[in-house]
Here is the input.
Amino acid sequence: MTKKNKLGLMAAVSAALLLGGAMLYFKDDIAQEIAENDLEPFRPITVSQGTLDEITSDLIAETTTKNTIKTDSTETTVTAEIPQNTAVSDTLPDDIRQSLIDSAQAMNSAYPDAVGWLYIPDTAINYPIMQSDDNDFYLHHAYDGCSLKSGSIFLDYRCENRFMNPINIVYGHNMQNGSMFAGLLSFADSAYFDSHRYGWLSTPEAVYRVDFFSCAKADMYDELYDGSTPINDWLSHLYNVSVVWENADFSEDDRFISLSTCSYEFENARTILTGKLVEMNGG
Here is the structure.
């Protein structure tokens, strides 16, 4: 073999190795993109999502309550907080509400582990919520059960599957590509929190507006993950570990949703975004 041929062969081998390495590096992102593209038939239709965007934008524009930013661990009870504006409407146009429910029903019919759809305007969070009989399966599986590094957004297996618990905990990975629950970390900034204070949850039976009021930093074993904790105690502890807290008004009948992901402020750190579930009526 001539020197020229040897150089050519070495170049070809090097190119193949580089290509193979690139494919290995990006294969997880590619697999995730394919899985997300396959969700398109079940996403809330464009007109419904656009309406939610408009409603959310109007709500944020009308909000004047200032965030309370936690800078220490001072003990303060939740009842000492000043109630936020309670005049926010709890109605959606009938066709929009029904469209969101229909989309959640279609997802649940195709994939019975799908218990709802979570959407936070102006973020990448626009995913189905899955639930299995443990908190391990959907860490590394897509909604269709296929192995996937990014996993799925999923509801704690100890929670009732229609979000009827007082405390409903939802998990998702903090992906380097910004997908899944990576965006939760931005809520630790009070200005960002203030401009992203509302989310939407649709289930096969109902549509909820999510009124976010807390972004907390806690250990993965924190009592916030214990859904059996009395609500007043749970809220008081949530306040104490929050880095951003929005003045809020609570009642004993309220239900809450906490979105949790890994963060790296300390060992086993978690960022937890919490909101109150407000069921929407047709109108």
In short: The CA atoms of residues 16 and 22 lie 10 Å apart. The two ends are 80 Å apart (CA to CA).
